[in-house]
Amino acid sequence: MLVSKIVEKVDIPHEDGEWVELRQLSWTAMDEAVDAKQERDVGQVKRMGGDVFEAIMRSAKPKEDKDEEKPKGRTGYEAYDPETLIRKSVVAWSYEGKVTLDKIRDLDSKTADWLAREVYERNKPPTEDESKND
User: Fold this and answer.
1) At residue 92, what are phi and psi to the nearest 5 degrees?
2) Are the CB atoms for 107 and 9 separated by under 8 Å?
3) How many Cα atoms within 13 Å fall on the side-chain side of residue 92?
4) C-alpha closest to that of 10 among 130, 110, 99, 115
5) From 12's CA, which of 65, 68, 82, 127 has a CA 20 to 30 Å away?
6) What pTM was computed for the model?
């Protein structure tokens, strides 16, 4: 299915009378959100310095006696950059003016968090179990 024309108007639950129009995201837009999150995370680690990075890597190593299977690929909302999700999905809103990156960055944290999670929930890839049922 081609998703570029699929748009839905959604009311903002905590702002009476306000709404956004959300475009369904393609797989490449979702990948871009993952890449942006990884780039942001790597930048933060680089700013911490080498010693801190090494300490994080040592503490993140799994213990030898654990037989847990590591999740493959994306692991949930936290793997995606919220700004990219919002930027790629929001095509219109009830706020004054057109949707721009500066205006997206001017959203209050409650609205931005709700909006990014809403976009993710509408576009998240199927779980392994869901994929098996297809």
Assistant:
1) -160, 160
2) no
3) 6
4) 115
5) 127
6) 0.74
